[in-house]
Specification:
Elements lengths: L9 H14 L3 H13 L6 H13 L4 E2 L5 H4 L1 H6 L7 H17 L6 E4 L3 E3 L3 E3 L6 E4 L2
Antiparallel strand pairs: 1-5, 2-5, 3-4
Helix pairs in contact: 1-2, 3-6
């Protein structure tokens, strides 16, 4: 995937940052979204999908991974319904990164990254695989 190095003035950055903060995403994701709308043929809307993930996360109790959220699980169906040039795996990777960044920046209401150990029946204490575990703030 090609990378773009972009330099802009502070005034433009501040405007983009303000809009990104309102939508609860990073500046990079905001710029990507705008470029996608302007030049892309992809009809998959990451901003809408991220908002759905945030809503799903609000409805969770206890610990959860992205795979437990209905929106994240249904990306195969959402991707097949759009004219996306990206595979469902690429969409999941980008959307997962967007969600993770939003949680790290405190933009997902009362959700945080859980760094402790999870007690699993049979007295094993471990984190499931390499998946990031989220939890509600206490």
């Amino acid at each position: 995937m090609p990378r773009v190095n972009l330099s802009i003035n502070q005034d433009m950055y501040d405007k983009i940052k303000h809009q990104a903060d309102i939508q609860g995403i990073s500046v990079n994701n905001m710029i990507y979204s705008q470029l996608q709308k302007q030049y892309g043929t992809d009809e998959f809307d990451y901003i809408v999908a991220l908002d759905c993930l945030k809503q799903d996360a609000m409805e969770q109790d206890g610990y959860f991974c992205l795979w437990e959220l209905p929106t994240f699980r249904s990306i195969d169906d959402m991707a097949s319904g759009s004219n996306s040039n990206e595979s469902p795996e690429q969409i999941r990777a980008r959307l997962g990164k967007m969600f993770h960044d939003s949680v790290e920046n405190g933009q997902v209401w009362d959700v945080e990254i859980y760094t402790g150990k999870i007690e699993i029946p049979q007295h094993k204490s471990k984190r499931p695989g390499r998946a990031v575990v989220y939890t509600k703030k206490k």
